[in-house]
Prior knowledge:
The protein is an all-alpha fold. It has helices spanning 2-18, 35-61, 70-95.
Amino acid sequence: xxxxxxxxxxxxxxxxxYFADTAPAPRHRTSRLEPEVLAAALRALLSLLxxxxxxxxxxxxxxxxxxxxxxxxxxxLATASxxxxxxxxxxxxxxxxVRADRAS
Length: 104
């Protein structure tokens, strides 16, 4: 579906470039939200919210190291960010099919 729209846009550009005086009028397309884009946006938002929510919970609980909250917040943000990144990597590698030449 995305390729069809991109091909139509490319065809319009080619016609306008090579045949400027006979180019057809541009087609008006309605933009629509695609489920894949919405899912990707929600995953990205969730990956930002997880470390922030954990940082707020850490701040509200009052955990301290050496009479300061900053080390705890730093450790929490670093750990949560690494965990979210590892989850993204795991999901990407789990969905990728194994090629026959790399299977052992």
